[in-house]
Structures are given as structure tokens and as C-alpha cells.
Amino acid sequence: MSAPGDTAWTDSEGFRGTMTAEEDTKWLQWVTQQFKTIAGKDGEINLQDFKKALQVKESFFAERFFVLFDSDGSGTITLQELQEALTLLIHGSPMDKLKFLFQVYDIDGSGSIDADELRTVLQSCLHESAISLPQEKLDQLALALFESADKDCSGTITFEELRDELLRFPEVMENLTISAAHWLTPPAPQRHQRRPRLLTSAYWHNHRSHTLCLAVFVGLHVLLFALAASAYRAFGASIMVAKGCGQCLNFDCSFIAVLMLRRCLTWLRATWLAQVLPLDHNIQFHQLMGYVVVGLSLVHTVAHVVNFALQAQSEASPFRFWELLLTMRPGIGWVHGLASPTGVALLLLLLLMFACSSSCVRRRGHFEVFYWTHLSYLPMWLLLTLHGPNFWKWLLVPGTLFFLEKTISLAASRMAALNIVEVNLLPSKVTHLLIKRPPLFHYRPGDYLYLNIPSIARYEWHPFTISSAPEQKDTICLHIRSQGQWTNRLFESFKKSDPQFCGSKRLSRKLEMKRSQRKSQVSEMCSENHQFCNIKCYIDGPYGTPTRRIFASEHAVLIGAGIGITPFASILQSILYRHQKRKHICPSCQHSWMDSGQDEDMKLHKVDFIWINRDQQSFEWFVSLLTKLEMDQAEETQEGRFLELHMYMTSALSKNDIKAIGLQMALDLLAKKEKKDSITGLQTRTQPGRPDWNKVFQKVAAEKKGKVQVFFCGSPALAKILKGHCEQFSFKFFQENF
After folding, report:
1. Distance between CA 419 and CA 231 in Å, rounded?
2. pLDDT for res 198
3. Which residues 6+ apart lie within 8 Å of 467 measured at CB?
4. How far apart are CA 8 and CA 688, in angstroms?
């Protein structure tokens, strides 16, 4: 059985209207087996067992379903009663399902639905969808749906009136399902996202630079290995393998540092090389080279061990095996016979670094272990210089760049401590920091920085996306979700010192904080007016991300999941500032128009912003910014809008779920009446469940606003799904890594 709340993520097609005879037989067998598992020795299910099996948040629907399934009114459900009810609901006509829905809403069984019954149902729907609304809003929803359905103004809704009202929502009628039967339906086989075949046009579209660089990387290794091995072909196979691997390691151990030169990579993003090199995959290439280094090192070591074993067995050799492997006596190497001891030390250091770089160490509260062991690259470079006679030549250029960048970063970050002038603790354990902006800190929308707060951890630096726009001159905004040891310590430390969480004036302080949040998201901040704290911090950056390409796109689709909105918050605010700059208003007649000229670095014709959140509270992070964006486009037609918003709440049950049909209809009706959504307050209606990506991308492709580029920030699992869809539609896909 699925966990509570998982319904929002189930396939919307849930139950099919028709089944083959063979499928029907298998389904009935499965139902019988499940019933026997849940039912007691008497072969019946009581109300408590039924509630437990359904795993619903609100007992109202479980009780209503139970009463309707219990056809003889005995207080228990038999297998026959359950099979008859489910067969009717799954195989029945839409009219049969509508009658069942009407009976659920008709609580007193009078044959009609009054306003209070409808309100009770909608209240239960809200609980099932994890939506919290004031009682006044609930009354408005109930009245909106009731007045729309009660055509004859009789004060009650008949079955015919409910049917006519539902016919106004064809998507509900088309896919009407009964969620009460989900637990008695065999789990559907998982449909894996079909990936394009390698080297097809769809695959090549998003992997061109990645594939070419990988081919060059493999080709270079083959060439280096072949040249080094051929030079030692007279010394035997083991020496040839060892020298070939050693030459490849000379390149890998020096170039692996280049992939982490963030300032150099940020500079390259502004050049034509960004179109050729896979700069967005530098971390993946760094990890790949790490695996290659470990593999080559093991082969290199085994080859030398075999060679030492053969030498030790030779009568001409004066040294034993352990002396060749561990001591300086044989004189192997270019610096006083240090090749063997340094080789052993290098292998041990490498294996330690490799083990401590695993995700289970980095992401499970042991970041310090990863950080400090990764600093062993410094002694490794020293040992490599002593170990191999040619390594220093390979390291000369990359090493110089690396130490130059590190020196600049250290000097810039420690030049002067900055003040965190304001802290807001937001829903879902999100910490909103407002930091005084340094005078020469120039960044672009979507960039990120490294943050160090000595009072939290003196030596830890963590990357966070800048959520404020570059046009905001005085401060830098960061939104940090508590997902690890450091971020949790950050949230808890401010929570303990935050006066809004204690004291008699708690609500007043909370209201003041909320007002300041709204201002900080849509206007330039003045630190003197918001001096909530004065904690010291250091920043290193800014550094570029794939989102820098957005303004050079023609049609950009921005997809943020949860806190993944942060890079897009900066971009949307920048769009807002640029939009206001291009907008002109006549002082006489107040007529407004847009300047036809565009920024030289902005080619955007259309932006679709899609924000997916689990719960209602998560929308509070940036709802004021989105409201301002909507207000700026209020005078434009739906077709002519530059920015289009799409909001999804995955915990809310979809329109074709019997536990949410009435609620979603009421929300639609009230949104049309009030011109705003009841959940977020935006003009854009919040859609329940997750997006149907196929329909979303079909609509984007049909608009023909130019070449489409999709930018995503969120979970890797969703990134794979989106990437597959983008390859099918030949859209460019860019992912921001957390």
C-alpha cells in the first residue's frame, strides 16, 4: 500500500474503463487475496479495518465509502459486497460513478445536497489535499459551487443539477476514478522513461559537447598509454602496463584540478567556448576522472608488484620483494630511490580520499571528513613530483592556475567580513539571509557563491544560489533549505535567538517579519531599516551556472521544484527590473507602452515558469514576487504575455479523484469570480498533482516562440524525466546542480 499523501504522485489514469476478460479474472483473484489478508477470521471487514486499509487523512470519506459499500447495513463488508461495488465503479458507466459521487455528498440520504452538506464535504476535501484555508474562504468556496449547481434556486442540489455542473468540467468526466479502491488494485508496472538511442539526433542534441569531450578524453588516454608502453616494450609486459598507466596518471592527476577552477569556468561561460565545452558537467567530469585515477593507480600498482615479484625471483637481483616494494635501497626513482615508498603512500592517500568522497559521507552529516581528506591533494602533488620524473612538467600550467585562483579567492573572501543584516525563518525550514553587498561584488542572475559563517563552522564553505537580482544594489539574498548538518545548525541557531518564536508579542513580531519579507523580495533593501541581526560572514564568488544562458534564449522554460526556485527567483526579479526599465507611461493620459529596443544580452521572446511544490506553505517563499510580476502584465492579453506562470501542488488530489472533485470545481469557480487563486492569492490557478510533462511540452512547442531551452533546478530523479522529454521534443536541457 502507498503511504499517505502519495496519491498526488500516482498516475492520473489510475483505473481504466474497460478490462479484458483475462485481466478481469486476474483482478478478481487479486482482490480476493487482498481481502483475505485484511479481513478477520469471519471473512468480513469492519469500519476500523477499512479506514486503516485506505490510509486516508480524513475519516469522512472512509466512513462514507464504507456505508455505501455496506449494502445490507450490517456494519461490515463482505467480499461479495466489495466485489459488486468495485465492479460497478471500475467497469460502470460515467453515470454509475456520478450516482456514487452524489451519494457520497448526500450525507443524510435525503436525495439532495444542501449547502451545509456541501461545506462538510469541501472541508474534508481540504484536509485530504493538505490545504489550509480560513473558514471564511471555505464558506466562499461552498457558496460558489452551491450557487453554480443550484440552477432552480431551490436551496438544494439534485442529482440532475450535480450532473449538469460536472458536465461543465469535461476533464473530470473523462477520467473519473474512485480512490477508495486504490488499495485493492494491483500495483501498475512501472513505466520507465524511454531514453533515445545513443548517437541518434535526439540524443546528440543534448549530449553533443559531452560526447565529443568524452571521446577526446578516451582517445588521449589511448594515445598516451600507447606511446609510453611502446617506449618500454623491451622491458616486458608488466613494465609496459605500469609505464602506460603512469603516463595517463600524469595527465589525470594534474588536469583533474582544472575542472574545479570555478573562476576560470565562470570566465569561460562568457566566451564562445561555452558553446563547445560541457562546462555544466565539470563536476561529473571531475568525478569521472577520480574513478579513472583510482582504476589506473590500481592497475599501475599491480603491474609494478608483478614486476617486483619477477625481479625478486631472479638470481641476478640482490633485493628481496619487500625491499623493492617498500624501501629506498634499490634506488628506484629519480629522487634518491623514493619511487616505491612514495607510490605506497600515494595509493593509501588516494584510497582514503576516494572512500571519504562517497555520497554517504558527504550527504549524511560528515562533510568535514570529505572536506579535510580532499585537501590531501596538496601532499599528493608533492609525492607525485617525487614519485615520477615528468609529473612536474604536467602540473606546471594547471598547478599555476590552481594556486593563482586559490590565492585570489582566499584574498577576496577574507578581505573584509560582511554582516548578515536580516534573517527570516520561512516554512519548510528555509532560512532567508540578507547580507550586506560588498562594493565590487558583480554577479549575474542565477549565479551562486560560497558562504562561510564562523559562528556556525569556522572552516566550512557551502555553495548557495543568490536569490536576489543584480539590480538590487545594497544587499544579497540567500534562501537556504535545511537538508544537512550545517544547514540544520544554521536554522536552529537563528531559531533559538529569534524573538518571534517566544514572548508575549510573538504574533506581532511575526506579522512585522512577514511584511519585511514581502518588501525584500520586490524592492531594494536598506539595511539600516532591517537590522534584525549583525552576524559576521564571509563569501567567495560569484560563480556562473547554466542559467546564465537564459537571457540568450528565445523561449525559456524555467522549472523549479521546491527550493529549486532560488536561481529563478533572481532571474525573474531581473526580468521584472528590465521590464520596468523598458516600460514607459505617458504623464498626460497614463497610456503605457514598451520600448521596442531590447537589452543587447536579452533575446527572450517568451518565458514559461513552472514551480512545483509539495505543500501549500512552500508557496509563501516568493509569492509576493510572483504577484508583482503578474501585476506588471495585467494589461496584456493572455496570448501576448511575455511571462507565463504555472503552479503545481503535488499534495493536492487531482480533479479526477473522488475526494477532490468538489473542491477543485469550487476552486475553479471562485478563481474565475475573484480573479485570483485561493491557495496562493495569484491570478494563476494552482494546479493539483504533478504536471503532465508531455502536454506541457506539446503546448510549449505549439507556441512557436523560437528555439526552446529548458532550465531545471530540483531533484535528480525529476531531472532524468525532464531530460527524456526534452530529447523527444528536441529541446535543449540545462540542469543546475545542488
Report:
1. 60
2. 56
3. 477, 478, 479, 566, 567, 569, 570
4. 8
Question: How far is residue 206's CA from residue 188's CA, in Å, rounded to a whole number?
Answer: 31
Q: Alpha-carbon distance 297 to 577, whole Å?
A: 53
> Which residue do the cell numbers 548557495 mark?
464
Rounded Cα distance, 688 and 614, in Å: 10
Do residues 57 and 130 lie in contact, with contact meaning Cβ atoms separated by under 8 Å? yes
List the end-to-end C-alpha distance of the chain, in Å, as a whole number. Answer: 32
pLDDT lower than 70: segments of the chain:
1-28, 31, 40, 52-58, 90, 171-206, 363-365, 497-533, 579-580, 582-587, 589-602, 634-640, 656, 737-738
Other Cβ atoms within 10 Å of 318 Cβ, number: 9
Give CA angle at 33 (28, 39), nearest 5°: 115
Opening angle at CA 370, ends 366 and 372, nearest 5: 110
What single DSSP character describes residue 338?
A: -
- Return d(Cα 272, Cα 294) in angstroms, integer: 33
Q: Tell me if residue 437 falls in helix, strand or coil.
A: coil
Neighbours of 16 (CB within 10 A): 10
> What's the pLDDT score for residue 56?
55
User: What phi and psi, each to the nearest 5 degrees, are found at residue 267?
Assistant: -65, -40
Helix and strand counts by DSSP (H, E) for the chain: 26, 16
C-alpha distances (whole Å) from 66 to each of 108, 111, 180, 181, 411 are 15, 18, 9, 11, 70
* pLDDT value of position 175: 59
Instruction: Quickly tell me which residue has 479481513 as its cell.
Output: 39
Q: Which three cell numbers stand for residue 62?
A: 472512509
Cα 434 from Cα 692, distance rounded (Å): 36
DSSP code per residue over 118-180: HHHHHHHHHHHTT----HHHHHHHHHHHHHHH-TT-SSSB-HHHHHHHHTT-HHHHHT-B-GG
Closest alpha carbon to 566 in 720, 682, 738: 738
Q: Is residue 542 reached through a cis peptide bond, with omega within 30 degrees of 0 on the bond before it?
A: yes
pLDDT at position 425: 84
SS3 labels along 66-121:
HHHHCCCCCCCEEHHHHHHHHHHHHHCCHHHHHHHHHHHHCCCCCCCECHHHHHHH
**Whole-angstrom Cα distance, residue 105 to residue 100?**
9
SS (H, E, C) 188-210: CCCCCCCCCCCCCHHHHHHHHHH
- Residues sharing a CB contact under 8 Å with residue 208, sequence separation 6 or more, in sequence order: none
Q: What b/e readout covers 498-516, taking b as 16+ CB neighbours within 10 angstroms?
A: bebeeeeeeeeeeeebeeb
189 residue type, one letter: P
Cα 308 to the center of its chain, rounded Å: 51
Q: And the C-alpha cell for 160? A: 440532475
Q: What is the reported pLDDT for 529?
A: 30
> Which pTM value belongs to this model?
0.72
